[in-house]
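#struct-help
A.M.: can someone run this one for me? Single chain, 369 residues.
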Amino acid sequence: MDTTITAVSTNLLRIPWTGEPPPNGIMPPTHREFLVLEITTRGGIVGMSYLQPLSGGLETLDSCLRTMIVPKLLGRDATEIEGIWQTLWTSTYWLGRGGIATWCLSAVDIALWDIVGKRAGLPLYRLWGKCRDAVPAYGSGCWRGLGRDGMIARAREFTSMGLQAIKMQAAHIRPWREDVRNVQAMRAALGPDIEIMVDVNMGWTADTAIQAGRHLDEVDIYWLEEPVVCEDVAGYRRIAAALRTRVVGGESHFTRFDLRPFFECPSSPILQPDPMRGGLTELRKIAAVADTWGMQIAPHLFHELTVHVLASIPNANYLEYMDWNDDLWINPSIPVRGMLRPPETPGHGLQFKAEILRDCRIGGFETVD
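D.P.: on it. Structure tokens below:
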């Protein structure tokens, strides 16, 4: 079958929230935004991927794809995934090395893997070499804006589904002592057997993280996530040295190059790379390097994609189950008894509902060779 790339198209979506929007202080209260990318081959296989910018930039991503990325794709063989990754990385280096260009590269990478999986008739986790049937998930969405009682109620929704781990937010809108009391209340409510992750979203200084973290040590949390801004590698190391609790991060870093300091001084036992900051190709490379240092991988968001990666690597930790997009998919990925299983559909197996693609479209382009 001819896998030459003959057309690339995008579909920009603005999708209203169903129910209450997440009070996380990051996302618009009225809608979600997606860029859906489709790459078509001469043999008729179509690979799909999507980007979900959490706080604007949809049209900027679309423009970058149209002007900087697509001209380098048309006529290439879609199975040249590594070669295309390198072409896009090096050709956008002066304006990229992260940011918009790498997000766009990631969209291409995910769509190409979808094509290769469909061409092979295999789900991606089997194409890459299955390591396990299912991956544990934690419930993410105990937002700081819900307040103490609201966070606890949200956590109980997750545990009622069979999840054995949850994540709650701290920092930004509350003083650290109140955050500590919130975590203490969560532990008292859930008991000793549910894992509690605490996400600071880069909201503290290293000194504050150490001061608060010493109290959190006593609550037996599973990890303290992104306690400082992503550039403060020394801060990560200081915090990790001062606390018993795991200090984790990586979601705001682009590619293995940004994560290199975490490998040079492996004080964080779990890394959380984002598939939209390098694609599935890069996520698998990060996982391989991390395994060399005895580190595990717990990707940021997008469990419906990253379940394939974690089911195919030896050093999988947790998947972040966020239910805010379950309504978009024909077959959503929902945990059963605390575990997520990759679909057996060739490629990544994801399909947006037709009515979402039709009714929520606000723009996009198509380029044909």
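A.M.: thanks! The CA atoms of residues 76 and 280 lie 19 Å apart.
D.P.: also worth noting: Residues 126-340 form a domain with the TIM Barrel fold (CATH 3.20.20.120).
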